[in-house]
Amino acid sequence: MNPLARSIEEFLPVEISSSFWFYILLRTALVVSTVCVAFILPFFGLVMALIGSLLSILVAVIMPALCFMKILGKKATRSQMVVSTSIVALGIVSAVFGTYSSLSEIAHKY
């Protein structure tokens, strides 16, 4: 919630966004709106699991290893490349299994 709240605060004038009460009200409104969406959408948890299995693995596991390989390029040792490639492969396998699990659970409940 904090990155979203900070982004909203950046678009507002400083005298409004620096207020303590605005800080509290904005974050409270974001949490309440998230709870409302969770109650309205019947498969909210499953959709969040699907998004998490795709994006979290991509951002936390696959992309850092790919960036490491891209930045070092030919300077990386053979063992570094093997470990980085293994991490990417494991991340892809995890993302595929997580996505399959989430999709099968959504299909089962639907």
Automatic annotation (TrEMBL):
Keyword Membrane: yes
Ranges where the Amino acid transporter transmembrane domain occurs: 18-102
Source species, domain of life: Eukaryota
InterPro entries the record matches: AA_transpt_TM
Any one biological process term the GO annotation gives: amino acid transport
A cellular-component GO term for this protein: membrane
Subcellular localization: Membrane
Pfam families, sorted: Aa_trans
Keyword Transport annotated: yes
Key words, A-Z: Amino-acid transport, Membrane, Transmembrane, Transmembrane helix, Transport
TM segment ranges: 20-41, 47-69, 81-100
Name assigned to this protein: Transmembrane amino acid transporter family protein
Organism the protein comes from: Abeliophyllum distichum
